[in-house]
Amino acid sequence: MSTNIAYDRLWLALKRSRPIAFGLFLARMTGNPKAAIVLSQLAHWTRTGRDVAQTNGWIFKTQQQWWLETGLSRAELDTARRRLRNLGFVEETLAGRPATLWYRMNLPNIARALEVCRKEALPVELTFEFMRAPERAVRDLLGPTTAYHRILADVTGGVNAGLLLSRLLQLQRKSVESGYPWFSLTALNWQEDLALNRRSLENAKDKLKELGLVQEFYLNRGAKRVYTQVDPALLCKLLEAQFASQAAARKRAEVEGLATTRRHQAFQMSRGEPGQTMPQAGPAPANVRNRQTGNAKPEISDCGIRTLQIAGNMHSSLPDSSTSIRDTTTGPNTATTTTHARAREAVLQRNESVVVDLDSLLWPDVLPQESRQGAITILGYAPTAVRQTLLDEFGARARRQSVENPLGYLRRLVLLAQQGRFVPELAHLEEQRRRNLVAVSASVRAAEAVVAAKACPGPQPSSKEEGRARIAELRAVMAERRARP
């Protein structure tokens, strides 16, 4: 009874994470588990991505987003990408300004590989429209899947170990429902299911054994078989600890990000340098003692799919400073700066922001006029370099869908910018729209000027040749008159 309760707690804990549908046929096609994870995730975003239809199947993903979704490091991701490119399953391109990497599934090549994998007599037709069709039809064609839990890669310390543990849990659940908790698979079965070769399989098993998550025993009945069982109680404890650690890290990052930004703004106002980011290393002013807070900016980014634009695509990397202003001192050789110190203390007490170049911002017409003063106050907390980008992001989002609380949405964008987590998705569209309006206005003014000139032609200045010819004609007429009797 206690074992069943432990399994129930384990299934409930795993529901807190979003798994990846790891395609078993895709693993056989690629021959590599990490390449199959990337291809499975691309298949998911191709089916469910919001802007994929507008970009003709192209998907934008940063390396940070791949790590958050799959747990693959940069080296592992590069190896998986190279394998998928060599097999012809994935296309890559650089687009935007600055150039960013976009991915697209090569559906004809994948369809031919599925024919071989499924041993189909009839040709397999795999199109983009079919991938966007109801999920059941796509699932039937792509074959069975297993739930790869990204959180297990953090618990076990590796993607292969996390994938193996995810598959073990799926088999464990089936065996528990049948009444016998032990199950057995051969190395050939693991090779067919997860594309794990013998060496990778043994290394992943060794990691799980070191953590005490799996138990094995050997049974020799004509052929030596290995029977395996997962320890649900220990895994549940490790999961709870991992979830708690992630929640604490997110909370600490938010609190420290806000505190650091406010202290930094106060320091800028006290020095009279609004809108500048202090470097982390350099000579400090004589009346200020700089201390390093030690808080690290979390490498977290929103996993969004941006609309593909060959020009005007933006990707922002916001500067952040961990400089902490704790105290102001004056020495015998230093002039007392009471004005700056009092200004800094007043800002800290009143929690004011540094408002710089807010008058030169270009406001979108979708922001109500009565909300503009509140928006100015909110944007005062944002870094100067990204204020216009934040406004453009809000304007483009408001044009696509109704924003019930404009100031609340803008406040959220500013908070992300303070933490260094703001990545513009639609701001380039608003900037391009503004350029188009300027170009259209200039064209209209030029056309109106041409029409006005044709309707009311004014006196045109004559050239030197025309003047000389006219003078010659006048002299000839005068000479004829003199010659008359």
UniProtKB/TrEMBL annotation:
Q: Compositional bias (Polar residues) at which positions?
A: 316-327
Q: Where is this chain compositionally biased, Low complexity type?
A: 328-339
Task: Map out region (Disordered) in residue numbers.
Answer: 269-299, 316-339
Q: What protein name is recorded for this chain?
A: Replication protein O
Its taxonomic path starts at:
Bacteria, Pseudomonadati, Pseudomonadota, Betaproteobacteria, Burkholderiales
